[in-house]
Design a protein that fits this description.
It is built from five helices and two strands. By secondary structure, the protein is mainly α.
Amino acid sequence: MDVEKLFDMLKKVQEPQGYYFNADRERTFELLEALLQNKARYGYMACPCRLASGDRENDKDIICPCVYRTPDVAEYGACYCSLYVSEDWNTGKIPHDFVPERRPPEKIVF
């Protein structure tokens, strides 16, 4: 799958749920490319802004869209990596605040 196809497919599924891609198309496509790289590497699309362990069970919380996206977008208007954002975030109606890491430290791989 190429980045354009992934973009189109996810957009159709996510926008009706209120999750939009970051309006910075270059950033969005970099993140989508990283998702495809992680899929090739691990067999699943782990969040490109976090280090995956390669253990699907350990990483299931960061398979995109990660379990942290909903609370992040609700609170900050964007997920941790800003791939998914709210419409208000994209249009500048809310500030682009730093989104803190919600993943528990014991799950983070170094």
